[in-house]
Structure formats: C-alpha cells, structure tokens
Amino acid sequence: MSETSWTERLFGGFRKTSERLSTNLSGVVGTAKLDDATLDEVEDALILSDLGPAAAARIRAKLAEKRFGLNVTERELKEAVADEIAAILRPVARPLEITAFPRPQVILVIGVNGSGKTTTIAKLAHLFQEDDYGVMLAAGDTFRAAAIGQLATWADRIGVPIVRGPEGGDPASIVFDAVKAATDQGIDALVVDTAGRLQNKRELMDELAKIRRVLGRLNPEAPHDVVLVLDATNGQNALSQIEIFKEVAGVTGLIMTKLDGTARGGVLVAAAEQYGLPIHAIGVGEKIDDLRPFDPDLVARVIAGVA
Q1: CA-CA 20 to 30 A from 136: which of 30, 149, 186, 203?
Q2: What is the C-alpha separation between 162 and 151, in angstroms, rounded?
Q3: Of 126, 151, 51, which Cα lies nearest the Cα of 292?
Q4: Contacts of 134 (CB under 8 A, 6+ apart)
Q5: From residue 158, how far is each of 145, 181, 188 by CA, in Å?
Q6: 76, 223: one domain
Q7: Using one digit for the tens of pLDDT, what is the confidence trace for 247-298?
Q8: Number of neighbouring beta carbons within 10 Å of residue 97
C-alpha cells in the first residue's frame, strides 16, 4: 500500500473522531482570544472526543501557554491541538523490532476475544515478512477451536509455519514445542496466540504464568514482548482492559485495531497519556497490509483534522 493510500485510510479510520473534535471545537473559534472560559470549552471538546481527562487537561494547559493572535482561527487552533497530541504520542511510538539474540524473539499476543487478535497476529507476521524475517506462529489459544482454525488459515495464506495442538490442549506445551521448532529452523520471530478470556482472571493469570515458566526454561529472556491487542471501538473500555492485562500479563506494548470509521480513535491519546506503554502499530481494516507501525505525527494531525 502506498503512503498516500495509507494516509487516506487513516483519514477514513479517524473520520468520526476528527469530525467529532471539529464539531466540538467549532463553537470555540472566532472568539477574541483563548480566555479561561474558551479553554474550558476546548478541554470539554477533547474529553468528548475520547482523548480522556488527563490528556485534555495537559493540552489545555499547553494551549494556555501559547501566544495566539486576537482572533483565533479554526486552523490555528487545530494546528495547536495537533502539536500537543503529537507531543503526547511521540514518546510511545515504538515499532516492534526483532532484536533478540539468540533467536527466536518470542512475542506473546493477548487480548479479549473479538478484539481482532488472531487477524492482527497474521498482519504482524506479514509486517515481519516484509522486513525479511523468518516467522512462525503458535496457536496457544486452545480454548476455542475457531481460534486454532483461523490462525492456521492465516498461516497458510501468508506462507508461514504454525505449531498447533488439539482444542483444549495445554497452551504451555504448544509454546514449548513451538520454541524448539523455531530454534531448530532458525526462525527470527515466534508469534504466539493466547487465550482471550477475561471472565476468570485467575485462570488466565495461571495459564500465562505457566507459559512464562516453560519459556524461561528454554530462554530466560522469553517472552521478549507481551503485546495487547485493543479494539478501538471499545473506547474507554479499552483503557480498563489495559489496566487488567497489565496486572495479569505484564503487557509491554499495544496494538490498536479497528480504526476503520470508529468515533473512538481518540482513545489512543488517552492510552498514551494514562499508561505510557509503547504503541507498536495500528490497524485500519481487514486486509493483510492494513496494519502499519504507529506514526504519531500523522495520527495527531488526522485526529485534529489538519493532515
């Protein structure tokens, strides 16, 4: 996909967010200056656009420091908001890089069922393939037969090996087999699907702890990454998922999916401000190349409607 079409896809994906923000900001412009009352309105507009109270307060404070002319134009205000959103997003924009030695780099992918986790694993594998890395998948979500089948279909489609077991099998033993196979085959990145149920946190925590113990016996550094896949359409609920999975699974980074027309794209900014976890990539659709590394400046301008 060309850069132009990716930018267009982003615009489409964040359209409702930027339209909502524009609508919420439009009542502010044309005022003589950004006084306290006007800044309060800007802050409210940002909160209504899912950027969260902490990010909204930070942006308001930064805007208050700026020197605007007597008549603030809509463009000036949006540019200023884009700058401040970018300042929040830049520190967390970190591509998922394959650096582990010895190989393979083991990446556990977690997330609630329905978040687009399995599809995201395939897209992530495809991204690694584009960088000439050898990739293997492991079907560690043995709780659902559909998850195993779906991952196997994707593995076949993109041409990567997969290690799988029976439905209801032991995820830790599948991961053990996968690491051994990946090591034997000189694979660079092993991407592991894991169970997505949050109804029983203790069960999930025990399962992940067992996987970690098994990995630790093979490679003390593994897992190298624990990536949480979040569905942007969940809005503020996505933030509570970060909270839970941080505690349960020791999340090291995020991938945000389903930014394809949702009005909830602002939650990216809220997540960055509140948790500061690396955002590795974002997804804007179902196609294999609809996942890209996270570009904070472009996303900030798209959200503010000035890209």
Answers
A1: 203
A2: 8
A3: 126
A4: 185, 186, 187, 188, 189
A5: 20, 19, 16
A6: no
A7: 888 899 999 988 876 657 888 999 999 999 999 999 988 889 889 999 999 9
A8: 12
pLDDT value at 203 more than 90: no
User: Which sign, positive or negative, has the C-alpha torsion 163, 165, 167, 171?
Assistant: negative
Model's pTM, two decimal places? Answer: 0.93
Q: Are residues 52 and 183 in the same domain?
A: no
Is the pLDDT assigned to residue 4 strictly greater than 80? no
Residues near 85 by beta carbon (within 8 Å), at least 6 away in sequence:
51, 55, 59, 269, 299, 300, 303, 304
Of 253, 206, 201, nearest to 225 by C-alpha is: 253
Does the pLDDT of residue 69 top 70, yes or no?
no
Q: Which residue has the higher pLDDT, 307 or 305?
A: 305
* Residue 193 counted as domain residue: yes
% of the chain residues with pLDDT over 70? 93
Q: What CATH number does the domain containing 152 carry? A: 3.40.50.300
